[in-house]
Amino acid sequence: MAIIRRFWRGWAVEALFGRPTAGQRTLYTALVGVAIAWPVLLFGIARPKLAVQILSMIPLPDFVPDWTVRLAWIAVAVLLPVGVGVAVTIRSPPAARRGPLVLRILRGFPLTVGLTVSFGILVLSVPAMRFAALIRRKKVLDIPLVMDAPAYDQVAREVCQVLNRQGFSFRPAEPDWWMSTPLHLLTWLGGDALRSHVPARLEHFESDGLRMSLYPSGLLLRGNPEQLTWAHGLIAESVVHTDGLQTTEPKALALERRLRPLWRRYDADPRGSSRDEVMLRELDRVTGDLKALQVGWDDWQVLYRQILQLARAVHGELPLLEGDAPPPFSPGRSSEESARQGTEGRAGS
What we know:
By secondary structure, the protein is of the alpha+beta class.
């Protein structure tokens, strides 16, 4: 359930607090996680002793009065939204800090409700979506792709153009309600403080056989498996030319951000990049830093591929996938037709 995980640890944190530092991210992720669990606190107010027993697996003695435990639950249930409001107020850009301070802090209450409802929508809808895809023999692929609001439209436009140049026919469409509702809900409840961190609307595209949705920390592909694999490769190859980031761990993100200016220098002068001493020295430094980087394999291999991809481009090599060769399928053709044509081609050779 990568989408649910990224809602909690990724774009919900950045929607509320902007892009925090590595140290701040842990605090804000915990705060969002507790806010999502706010219904547990409300249950504790209604049934204080039972809630303590469920959470701690230890029953409270009978001599402890209910009202004292209920007061503790009430205090936590009130302080948590206040904490969300204070954190959002501190992290909001100066232009968004309008109105009395008290009202901005009290906005933490509707934001907490919005987080709870949004998370509940994803918890219920994502398994249903995956089950429906399984029944239809479709594949679902969730690709990490971290984007802030200014980069969001750029990434969506670049990805769509690259895929369509390779034979796909993606066209804009309305996103699924379960993807758009959480974003609209948080933006509506958070006001200007959130609108500076999230896109105005979610980008969603459809083609013959594939559906593609972009949310602030990832890209969701659904459809025919053979088309989906090819599209995934093209996306991974092309997003390096945008501000979208494919790693997730803070250390890996920091190294990946150092590659983006190098790609911009290359895009500005592809032919002269092989003589750009500044670019070549920085690429060597990034390569050396990758050797000592302690991150998970998924992020490490993304960085390894991007460094190889940049080195290949600097030395005049064309992209492996987005070249003149035709795709290994015809978009919109069924897998049976693709397999039949491949068999006939091998028989005739």
